[in-house]
Specification:
This protein has about 375 residues and is an alpha+beta fold. It has helices at about 1-15, 25-35, 40-50, 60-90, 135-145, 180-190, 190-195, 210-230, 235-250, 255-265, 265-280, 295-305, 315-320, 330-340, 350-365, and strands at about 95-100, 120-130, 150, 155-160, 165-170, 195-200, 205-210. It folds into 4 domains: about 1-55, no CATH class; about 80-210, Beta Polymerase, domain 2; about 210-315, no CATH class; about 315-370, no CATH class.
């Protein structure tokens, strides 16, 4: 059954013309369910529109698909409008801003899919315009004063806008668990102004990451989700369209890009990601950043198909959170470490460093070490 879903995915991406056979009604139900589980139901409707008439799903399933797509489109309009408001406000209040992943990915998608991508929260990387002694503390205090902050971690603050759209103000774009690699990562993305450009989103420009930087940053984003909670096909499709755009607009060669990827400690993961892009999405070898890695790629592909979007349908993640957030943090940590042991042979440094970094971030928050 999995192969017919992947074929449908490739039709949607334009790397396949049609399905190898006509699915049954039961199979269409399964395809729709998997599309929802992977948070790609909206954009997959574009694939249905490309199918020959004799391969289209039954009308009841098609109507259900159209209904969920309309909901996604409405949410996108609201999220995009909120994104514009927040960016303007941050710039007005003396901050440089850069929209990360999420809404910034719409510039990579074909027109018929832009508003059909399932959207989540808004992620904005923020740095004060003027130099100050403790920029992280400045950002946190600004969010506390101007928004109803309901979450804080080493990476970002969290709040929900009055219209219900969740927002994360990033103190840093991302991180690596291994100390030396994280130091390199923070240094590489140490200058927001050098990393960003402006792109149009529904008639207005927003600050986004340059394509040459984004192709590295979003690789890290997928890598982090794989290690931390699970990654789904929505992030892989984002990367497919990002890499497609990069192949047309890059100013840095593949060799130069992969040198940076290796320097940041993601070379092995890059090979796995390229395998998934080739085998699942149908991307041609000449468009890949590096040669695909068969064994690492199979492992990553199995994780993606098991986890679903952000690991929400992964039974292993359900076990970690089974007894509630406050019941036993130590037991949760042990279960998470046990889950991550399956990554030990592929990414040993991340697995060994993750529990230590989790403690460091906990101490940072509890002791309010916001000058770091």
């Amino acid at each position: 059954m999995q192969y017919i879903f992947i074929e449908m995915l490739q039709v949607m991406l334009g790397t396949r013309e049609k399905l190898s056979r006509v699915p049954s009604s039961a199979e269409w139900e399964t395809i729709y369910g998997e599309a929802e589980r992977q948070a790609v139901a909206g954009i997959m409707l574009a694939g249905l529109e490309r199918l020959p008439i004799n391969q289209c799903p039954p009308q009841n399933i098609l109507l259900q698909w159209i209904g969920i797509c309309q909901q996604i489109e409405s949410q996108n309009v609201l999220t995009t409008k909120t994104c514009h408001i927040i960016c303007k406000q941050l710039e007005h209040d003396g901050f440089h801003a850069c929209v990360l992943k999420g809404q910034s990915n719409y510039r990579y998608y074909p027109l018929e899919m832009k508003n059909r991508r399932s959207c989540g929260d808004i992620d904005v990387w923020v740095v004060p315009n003027n130099s100050c002694k403790h920029p992280v503390r400045t950002i946190i205090e600004y969010v506390q004063v101007n928004y109803d902050m309901n979450g804080l971690c080493w990476l970002h603050t969290s709040h929900v806008e009055k219209n219900g759209v969740p927002v994360e103000i990033h103190l840093r774009p991302s991180f690596m668990s291994e100390p030396f690699k994280n130091r390199r990562f923070q240094k590489y993305y140490g200058n927001l102004e050098a990393c960003r450009e402006y792109a149009e989103l529904d008639g207005e420009v927003i600050p986004v990451m340059k394509v040459d930087e984004d192709v590295i940053y979003q690789m890290n984003h997928i890598y982090r989700h794989l290690i931390d909670e699970g990654v789904g096909l929505r992030q892989i499709i984002d990367y497919f369209f990002l890499l497609t755009t990069w192949n047309k607009k890059h100013t840095r060669s593949k060799e130069e890009t992969m040198k940076i990827v290796a320097h940041l400690g993601m070379k092995k993961f890059a090979g796995a990601l390229m395998y998934v892009l080739r085998e699942v999405c149908g991307m041609k070898d000449e468009m890949l950043l590096c040669p695909a890695s068969f064994f690492d790629g199979i492992f990553l592909m199995n994780e993606i198909m098991l986890s679903g979007n952000f690991g929400h349908s992964d039974p292993r993640m359900a076990e970690i959170n089974a007894h509630g957030y406050l019941s036993s943090r130590a037991k949760q940590a042990c279960r998470r470490f046990k889950r991550n042991m399956r990554f030990l042979t592929s990414y040993p440094g991340e697995v060994i460093s993750e529990p230590i970094v989790r403690v460091e971030h906990f101490v940072w928050k509890k002791l309010k070490l916001f000058r770091f």
